[in-house]
Each structure stands twice: as C-alpha cells, then as structure tokens.
Amino acid sequence: MYTSRPAAFTYHRPTSVEDAVRLLGELDDARVLAGGHSLLPAMKLRLSMPAALVDVGRIAGLDAVEADGDGVKIGALTRHADVATAELVQRRCAALADAAALIGDRQVRNRGTIGGSLAHADPGADYPPVVKALGATITVAGAGGSREIAVDDYFLGLFTTALEPGELLTSVHVPAAAASAYVKHPHPASGYSVVGAAATVSIEDGKCTAARLVIGGAGGAPVDAAAAAEALVGAAPSPEAVATAAERVPDALGNVIGDTYASADYRRHLAAVLAKRALTRAFERAGA
Ligand code: FAD
To answer: Backbone phi, then psi, for 145, in 5-degree steps?
Structure first.
C-alpha cells in the first residue's frame, strides 16, 4: 500500500560536531538530517528507513562562507541560496555560484545544503561536477577526528562517496580558479541536471595554459573529460579550439546512463553541446 508517511524513527538534535559524531557512532542505523530535501522524500517513499535521524541543522558555525588562502571554505550547512549569492564564491569560483543558482527552485535552494548534496551524491546533482573541476577538498569529522578527502577520491559512483559510516561532512575547501563556468540541461519536472558541464580555464599571453572539463549526469559519478580539456592547452581560446575540444567529450565519457527521459546517446550529444557552452563562458570570464 502506498503511504506518504516515513517509517518510525527516533530524532536527535546535537548542538556540536562532537555530539553529532558521538550520536552517529552510538545509534544503530542513524542518518544525518541536513536540509532534508533529498532524505525526507526518500523516507516518505520508504526507499530509506533509518532507525534514527541526527539533525545537524542547529550546529552553530557550519554555515559560514569564508576566505581560505586563495580559495573559499564553505560550511556543510550553507544553503544553496547562500552559495549562489556569496560574493566570495562568485569572485573566486564562479562555477560554484552558477551551479547553486541553477538548483531546483527557490524553496529547494533555501533549504538544501551543500554538505547534504555532496554527501548524497545524486548523479543528477549540480555541485559534484563543479567541485571536481575546481579541485576541491572535502573535510569530514568522525570518531577518530577529522580528515580531508581530495575530490578526485571522493565520488565513487551512483550515490556513493568516500564518506565512512558515522562520518559527518563539515566543510568543503574550493581553490580559486582563474575562470570557471557551469551550465546544465535541467530535467523539466525536477530541475535536476540531465547533463551538466563544468569548466575551468587559465589564459596567459593569449594562450590557454590550463583547462579542466567535468561532466555530470552522464555516469554514476562526475566524469573528468581530460582528453577534451587537454586539446585546449597551448591553443588560442577561439571558437574553433572550443569546438575541437567539445568534439572529444562523448568519447571521454565511458559508460553513459540512459533512462526514460534521455537515452545514453542523447546524453553524449548534450555533453558535447554543454561542454562548448561552459568552456565559452569560462573563456569569456577569463577575458578572452
Ligand atoms: P538531506 O536531504 O538532509 O540529506 C541527504 C543525504 O545526505 C542523507 O543521506 C543525509 O544523511 C546525508 N547528509 C546530509 N548532510 C550531511 C553531512 N553534513 N554529512 C554527512 N552526511 C550528510 N539538487 C541539485 O543538485 N540540482 C537540482 O536541480 C535539484 N532539484 C531538486 C528539486 C527538488 C524538488 C528537490 C526536493 C530536491 C532537488 N535537489 C536538487 C536536491 C537538493 O539540492 C538537496 O537539497 C540536496 O541533494 C541534499 O541536501 P540536503 O541538505 O537537503 O540533505
């Protein structure tokens, strides 16, 4: 029988990271609750039936956006709306502000958190390709203290990350990029990305000196289209160079997801189109 009510659970509301980690270690089958915009729908559909929820929403200090060296440190509880509008994010890692502004609708952006999205690792989420393109580092707290995970070691597959049971994602450090951009093709019903492309570029003396291109929505985890980005290095940032790089994207994707909305072939096509747009916008931001 269909029900929109979750299965029974106990509710816990710690006020510090230490308490949250202790509860996650002590309670059987406990899950972190942040913005609730992925977890609660899954619980209502009984796709997820945790025995205990540890609501981290009242832990002070986990929702700050602050300068961290040349980059930006973003607390796990920072709402998508606050990531989108943070001047520091817009200036130092514009692709992340692009992605946050494109998430779902106003209500989702005002409740959902960056930590929740990175922990959930939905293949259609917008942050994963962006933090990978920007070379972010994810900080987590667990029973043994805190540890840092390089983003290339973090996303392991469909809804799967390097977070261990009992660990709490506390912040993400995003290095500044010379210029970056993110574009997506949204699903018309949910707004999730069918395919998204994140690009970072650097230019010196009229030539591209570095580029990174990451595609989301095509596989279980974001895919680094390194062979496509490499085609740009050493070239002048022209429409022809961007088109040549974009042509290499479909072959760089490996196995691509196909579903009732978009076949694998359509996603491959979208990835090339969106890669071109993301690279073009990143080069424009670099002043090319
Ligand atoms: P929650 O739902 O509270 O938690 C999600 C999962 O992460 C749970 O398993 C939870 O235990 C775990 N978790 C949460 N925080 C932490 C933490 N700090 N440490 C460890 N584990 C943690 N997303 C997009 O990217 N793009 C979209 O276009 C988009 N559209 C949406 C449209 C709708 C209608 C809805 C309902 C959601 C949409 N989302 C979209 C998802 C949204 O961004 C969610 O907010 C996000 O995926 C999860 O963040 P949350 O804070 O709500 O996490």
So the answer is: 110, -160
- The token pair that represents 249 in the structure block: 């994207």
Burial class (CB in 10 A: 0-12, 13-18, 19+), 40: middle
Task: Output the residue whose Cα is nearest ligand 1's atom 24.
Answer: 125
pTM over 0.85? The answer is: yes
Name which residue sits closest to atom 6 of ligand 1, judged by CA. Answer: 120
What is the DSSP secondary-structure string of 78-140? -BHHHHHH-HHHHHH-HHHHHHHHHSS-HHHHHH-BHHHHHHH--TT-SHHHHHHHHT-EEEE
Give the CA angle between residues 14, 63, 107 to the nearest 5°: 95
Counting every residue written for the chain, the total comes to 288
Print pLDDT tens along the chain (288 aa). Answer: 556 889 999 999 999 999 999 999 999 999 999 999 999 999 999 999 999 999 999 999 999 999 999 999 999 999 999 999 999 999 999 999 999 999 999 999 999 999 999 999 999 999 999 999 999 999 999 999 999 999 999 999 999 999 999 999 999 999 998 899 999 999 999 899 999 999 999 999 999 999 999 999 999 999 999 999 999 999 999 999 999 999 999 999 999 999 999 999 999 999 999 999 999 999 999 998
171 touches ligand 1 (CB under 6 Å): no
**Which residue segments constitute the domains of the chain, with CATH numbers given?**
10-50 (no CATH), 65-174 (3.30.465.10), 180-285 (3.30.390.50)
Does residue 95 line the site of ligand 1, with CB under 6 A?
A: no
From 120, 127, 167, 195, the mutation candidate for ligand 1 (largest count of ligand atoms within 8 A of CB) is 120
